Amino acid sequence: MPLTKAIIVPGNGAGDVERCNWYGWAKKQINKIPDMTCLLRNMPDPVTARESIWLPFMQEELQCDEETVIIGHSSGAAAAMRYAETHKVFGLILVGAYTSDLGDENERESGYFSRPWEWEQMRRNVGHIVQFGSTDDPFLPWKEQQAVAEGLGAELHKYTERGHFQNTQFPELIDAVRKLRTAA
């Protein structure tokens, strides 16, 4: 199936996602790619980002499917990975992905980290996996980001000065979407 849709799943606590980090900018850039549509919505339960709320929203409201690349940032990356355990999607682009609750109560309450990751199942359900990570991320240890890349066999883009990718533009992300579009 061709890649026709990108869905940006933001990190928790993003507030108005159109004006947060690179999300709104990326949506505009992706919508300029011929035959592509990008969706970006304020998520329900935006602070705790519970799996039990976000995954049904991704399926029913955002309609993530086999023609979709899910672009997940931070807790949105955790949601994208859990979604891919049980749903086929065209691709994942993970930004600031991690594997544990990091000892944080809010992360623990989200539900994403209560069981082992099903890496093999995700690889079966996803055609293309790209990951962006930075060794200077103030929230995520590099070893957790590396564990995601290894578990998924992701095409890893490793940086040393991007922190948690909270800048207002992210041209490398748009390049990755364009590359996936041509791979379709």
Task: Please specify the SSE layout and strand pairing.
Elements: E1 5-9, H1 23-31, E2 37-40, H2 51-60, E3 68-73, H3 75-86, E4 89-95, H4 105-110, H5 119-125, E5 126-134, H6 142-152, E6 155-159, H7 171-183
Parallel strand pairs: 1-2, 1-3, 3-4, 4-5, 5-6
Helix pairs in contact: 2-3, 3-5
Strand content: 15-25%
Instruction: Return the string of H and E elements.
Output: EHEHEHEHHEHEH
What Rg do the Cα atoms give?
15 Å
| Residues in helix, % | 25-40%
The pLDDT mean sits at 97
- Poorly predicted regions are none
Q: How would you write the strand order of the largest sheet?
A: 2-1-3-4-5-6
Which class best fits the helix and strand makeup? alpha/beta
Continuous helix count? 7
Strand segment tally: 6
Euclidean distance between termini CA atoms: 7 Å
